[in-house]
Amino acid sequence: MSVKSKILILAQHNGVAINQGTAKAITAAMNIPDCSIDLAVFADDTSTIAAEAAKLANVGTIHAVTTTDENWKLAQGIAPKIAELATNYTHIFGPSTTFGKDVMPCVAALLGQNQISDIMQVIDATTFKRPIYAGNAVITVESTHDKIVATIRNASFKTADMTSGSASIENHTIDNAQTDTKFVSLQAGNSERPDLQTAAKVISGGRGLGSEENFELMYNLADKIGAATGASRAAVDAGYCPNEMQVGQTGKIIAPDLYVSFGISGAIQHLTGIKDAGTIVAINKDADAPIYEVADIGLVGDLFKIVPELMEKL
């Protein structure tokens, strides 16, 4: 069978494991008929992470690109090489994560293409659906470009098999690394909880918690059930928790099997980030809170009484 579409996907990883957003981008790519799928992996030492990437099902080749000075964490450090690799591809995809949203626009600019953002459905090789107006509307986009650069919405696709693949590995280097931008450091909270964007269960808190100290209730409950922790923008802006926990239009778009919110009223920007969740549970003392309009299960009450009662039952 002839291959009509050749797809290159940017793999996201933490140096040890491949992010599930990469596997979801593969699922999206598989909806394009008559296609082949390859991955690009960047790291200071690609030996371990390329082997992990090779386990992803339905991938033919891993382009393992060795960088220097941790430039693989910078869009400016890797975008030129992706554009170079893209010569032989019709589609260049990246996950719609913080990382993907940083890198893919640079790739699109270098290729002279318009990027398609947040693809939520693949209709055919050139036609896609994506949300607009904070998810209140969905448009169909048809591209006439010779190369299609796009980010894939994590919440809209299932995770592809990450263990049964046997892709070949081709090694590359970045010969002319740019010097205008340099990676200095990465500051992130250390947590053994699941990753917020890929977790099956999420416990989320809002302004109703009232303080950073009270947010410990969310952490304790999440640890009790093995869930990730999230927050509304109001809670983040108030300093109750770090901004990497923010869920919503200007935060992370998630689709866990279970999403439980405490003290979140449900602004439209927040609801945009959770509407694809399997089951939404809302606990708020305000019976008229907008979040109850989308919740599958709603409980009106004082979270400071409800959370301890839940902890006792678990």
Structure description:
The model has no long low-confidence stretch (mean pLDDT 91). This protein is of the alpha/beta class and 314 residues long. It is globular. The strands form 3 sheets. Strands 5-9-4-1-2-3-10 form a 7-stranded parallel sheet, with helices on both faces. Strand 1, helix 1 (20-29) and strand 2 (35-43) form a beta-alpha-beta unit. It folds into 2 domains: 5-173, Rossmann fold (3-Layer(aba) Sandwich); 201-313, Rossmann fold (3-Layer(aba) Sandwich). It has helices at residues 20-29, 46-53, 75-85, 98-111, 216-225, 233-237, 268-274, 303-313, and strands spanning 5-10, 35-43, 61-66, 91-95, 115-119, 121-122, 127-132, 137-142, 148-152, 168-173, 201-205, 228-231, 258-262, 279-284, 297-300. Helix 3 crosses helix 4 (98-111) and helix 5 packs parallel to helix 8.
Q: How would you sum up the global shape?
A: globular
Count of all domains: 2
Q: What's the CATH superfamily of the largest domain, by name?
A: HUPs
- What is the total tally of β strands? 15
What is the averaged pLDDT score?
Answer: 91
Beginning-to-end CA distance, first to last residue = 54 Å
The tally of helices reads 8
CATH class of the largest domain: Alpha Beta
Oligomer: single chain
- Please outline the major beta sheet: 7 strands, parallel
Evaluate the radius of gyration. Answer: 21 Å
What percentage of residues falls in helices of 4 or more residues? Answer: 10-25%
Which class do the helix and strand fractions yield? Answer: alpha/beta
Enter the CATH topology name of the largest domain.
Answer: Rossmann fold
Poorly predicted residue ranges: none
Strand residues, percent:
25-35%
CATH architecture of the largest domain: 3-Layer(aba) Sandwich
Task: State the strand order across the main sheet.
Answer: 5-9-4-1-2-3-10
Strand-and-helix sequence, N→C?
EHEHEHEHEEEEEEEHEHEHEEH
